[in-house]
Design brief:
Blueprint: H1 11-23, H2 86-99, H3 103-112, H4 116-123, H5 141-151, H6 156-170, H7 180-189, H8 201-212, H9 216-226, H10 231-249, H11 266-283, H12 304-314, H13 331-359, E1 370-375, H14 380-390, E2 398-403, H15 413-426, E3 434-437, E4 442-445, H16 454-468, H17 479-485, H18 506-510, H19 514-525, H20 530-534, E5 539-544, E6 547-552, H21 567-579, H22 584-598, H23 608-616, H24 623-629, E7 631-633, H25 640-650, H26 654-665, E8 681-684, E9 694-696, E10 701-704, H27 710-722
Parallel strand pairs: 1-2, 7-8, 8-10
Antiparallel strand pairs: 3-4, 5-6, 9-10
Helix pairs in contact: 1-6, 2-3, 2-5, 3-6, 4-7, 6-8, 7-9, 8-11, 9-11, 10-11, 14-16, 16-22, 17-23, 26-27
Length: about 725
């Protein structure tokens, strides 16, 4: 790697340093800050690829490393004594701006960035203290921020001197393991705003390469130190790395960079460093930035299936794939991967059915290519359960639904309605499968014991079919449900392995039973004598069909009092009982139902939050965005009827807006790609204005008669959307 190579192997870097020296301007330069230009570096020597071993199945191991590593710590070399403070530096900058004499500022920058040793001398809080723990990086963050904020407003020769010093540091020949001072230097250099400029990308790439090639123990320190970076600057670091990857993939000016074949390691290095920041973000509670801030939408435009197949074929080998780092792939891109993977599985299953028919010399039937579900509205749940159980081998075929006795042809609308009606009936409180918690506005599994859990398997299969067939469902499960659904993401071969069990905390319980969670939080914070004042034991009570039953949270729990010393254990066991153990059989059936349809390695790419969005869509409606993306047939968007329509719709309550969306599309949720993905269309209906609007849910199409005034349109529209269920011909 770069750190071990002889300096004569990097002639381009040497030439670059020479160029900087030749073009160096006088320290009294009064010229305003200018665009930093670095010579073309297409001939940089290629370096061997770094090892890539981060995969969703084997999470970044920094999460599991011990808090303090016992590896021998290399001795830190003595640091030069530097006494400049933040105020001294700011005074120097102000004097330089007013006088035009930048010598003091130039000297500071050229000295401070001349080597890793000097970086530590300038920015370490205490030169004599080792700072060898993950808790404190020892970096004077305020000083670093002030110095970097001023850097881009200095003359060009000052900026070049910083880059020259960074190159000197990167070219140093390393012997033995890195010291904590080296890690501090890397942490500081990563924050350099100059690396937002494409002309510095060659230097930035080598910095990223060295950081990516550090040991796992060193990465552990960098991750924990990164957690302390301020949110705005943390976001800037992430955005800079994402921009670097995007511009290397699709350069605006290809001549600015070396040929792709000469720098194949650029993107893997940057992605692995980005993984460190993602790990830091995941370990922070709450997270520093949203997980969606790590998405790189540029990847939506590459061959995602090639990435997916490379990942499937080569796994954790030296062949790089973005799927090894799924946090960088947007939910829209993951949806594409899952859809195409589903389509390929559908085609494969359908082709096998066709081959089987032909081999038995039977006449092929088009219906054999689909999962055909025939149900009666009056027996919706039982018919659906029977159909899916009987046709378990066909679950990965394209779904088609028929309501017995109705003339509707399923072009997508009947399927949507089947999902909606079935979900509505199964989740009704009278059905007893799920309990609705008003405080959290979500459903949770009923803990009542029963002889047959097949209906829970049906609900899981429905969710799987919805994802498989790109249907959004109006299901309100808490986020921990989707954590459990991915525990594990691939069904284990050993059927004795527990499924749907994961480590859940009080934070997860708050999202299901906030009142109970609040009570447990108060127990943890109680300052009095817990044993005497609460008089509780490691035992819980639940009502089942009018009978109070007790359960021990641990062996002989009814005889173990809850005390100040063991109350944390009590709370954790209580949470585990409510969210895992008490509903294990129900959730296991649900888990197997979902994975019977959605068994795919693509699930390894998903976060629990992303599974929820794929299943349910987003409940947040933006009717203005729908208005912008709506297409018209027979109308113009300037027509009076259309203007009336949008005035009425934008003035609707959220409930009526959801009813309109349900009426026109078969679902009141917004798909992953937003309103634009609905392909909503308003067509002119050449019927009497006495008629109500008509919808073709399979085409997301609303047929609107040319009503004469806004009042009539509003009245007819509300009647139509409030009485919209069933397909039939009168």
């Amino acid at each position: 790697g770069l750190e071990r190579g002889a300096k004569n192997q990097f002639s381009t870097f040497s030439n670059f340093i020479t160029t900087i020296n030749q073009k160096k301007e006088g320290t009294g330069n009064r010229s305003p800050p200018t665009q930093l230009v670095i010579p073309n570096m297409k001939n940089v020597r290629d370096l061997p690829p770094i090892c890539l071993d981060v995969r969703q199945k084997q999470r970044v191991s920094v999460d599991t490393l011990p808090q303090e590593l016992k590896a021998p710590i290399p001795p830190e070399p003595a640091l030069p004594l530097r006494t400049k403070t933040v105020k001294d530096f700011q005074d120097d900058v102000e004097k330089a701006k007013s006088s035009g004499d930048w010598k003091a500022v130039h000297d500071f920058y050229s000295t401070s960035f001349d080597s890793f040793l000097e970086i530590n001398a300038a920015f370490k809080k205490d030169a004599n203290f080792p700072f060898n723990t993950i808790e404190d990086s020892g970096i004077n963050a305020k000083f670093v921020n002030v110095v970097y904020d001023a850097l881009l407003n200095t003359p060009q020769d000052v900026q070049k001197s910083v880059l020259k010093g960074i190159i000197n540091g990167l070219l140093q020949e390393w012997k033995g393991p890195r010291t904590k001072d080296d890690l501090r230097a890397y942490c500081i250099l990563l924050q350099n705003p100059q690396f937002s400029n494409t002309s510095t990308y060659v230097i930035y790439a080598h910095l990223l390469r060295q950081i990516a090639a550090l040991t796992e123990a060193d990465h552990h320190f960098l991750v924990h130190w990164s957690k302390k970076i301020a949110q705005r600057r943390f976001k800037q670091l992430v955005d800079r790395l994402l921009q670097f990857i995007s511009l290397r993939l699709f350069p605006a000016k290809p001549e600015e960079f070396p040929p792709m074949m000469k720098c194949t390691w650029w993107i893997p290095s940057a992605t692995k460093v980005l993984a460190l920041f993602n790990a830091a973000n995941s370990l922070s509670s709450p997270s520093i930035i949203s997980y969606t801030d790590f998405y790189n939408s540029t990847l939506d435009h590459i061959d995602l299936m090639e990435e997916y197949h490379n990942w499937q074929c080569y796994g954790n080998s030296h062949r790089f794939s973005f799927c090894q780092y799924p946090f960088i792939i947007s939910i829209a891109a993951k949806k594409v991967i899952i859809q195409r993977d589903s389509e390929q599985q559908m085609i494969s299953i359908a082709r096998q059915s066709l081959v089987d028919k032909v081999s038995r010399r039977q006449k092929p039937d088009m219906n054999m290519l689909f999962l055909n579900v025939k149900v009666r509205r009056t027996h919706l749940v039982s018919d659906s359960l029977d159909e899916l159980a009987r046709k378990r081998a066909d679950l990965k075929k394209k779904l088609k639904v028929t309501f017995v006795g109705e003339a509707g042809l399923d072009m997508g609308g009947l399927t949507k309605e089947w999902f909606l009606l079935l979900i509505r009936q199964i989740f009704h409180p009278d059905y007893g499968m799920f309990t609705y918690h008003k405080d959290s506005h979500c459903h949770w599994f009923s803990s009542f014991k029963c002889d047959n859990y097949s209906e829970f398997r049906l609900v899981g299969a429905l969710m799987g079919l919805a994802v498989y067939n790109s249907i959004t469902l109006d299901i309100r499960f808490p986020p921990c449900c989707y954590k459990k659904l991915l525990s594990p993401p691939i069904v284990p071969c050993d059927h004795n392995t527990l499924v749907g069990i994961c480590d859940l905390t009080l934070e997860d319980l708050i999202q299901v039973m906030p009142e109970l969670a609040h009570g447990l939080s108060e127990l943890l914070a109680y300052e009095g004598n817990v044993e005497e004042d609460f008089y509780s034991t490691f035992q819980v009570f639940q009502e089942e069909f009018g009978v109070i039953k007790s359960y021990n949270l641990k062996p002989n729990g009814d005889k173990i009092p809850v005390t100040n010393q063991n109350r944390k254990e009590y709370v954790q066991l209580y949470v585990d009982f409510l969210l895992n153990k008490s509903i294990y059989k129900q959730f296991a059936a649900f888990y197997y139902g979902f994975h019977s349809v959605c068994a795919s390695y693509a699930l390894l790419l998903l976060r629990p939050e992303e599974v929820e969005i794929l299943v349910c869509g987003s409940p947040e409606l933006d009717m203005t965005a729908l208005q912008r993306s709506t297409q018209y047939e027979g109308y113009q968007k300037t027509d009076l009827t259309i203007r009336y329509f949008w005035e009425v719709v934008l003035g609707f309550s959220l409930d009526l807006q959801k009813k309109l969306l349900h009426f026109a599309t078969g679902s009141d949720r917004v798909p992953v790609g937003g309103m634009a993905d609905l392909n909503f269309k308003i067509s002119k209906s050449e019927t009497s204005t006495n008629w109500l609007p008509v919808a073709h849910t399979c085409f997301n199409q609303l047929c609107l008669p040319p009503y004469k005034n806004k009042k009539e349109l509003k009245q007819k529209l509300i009647i139509g959307i409030s009485n919209a269920e069933g397909f039939g011909l009168e």
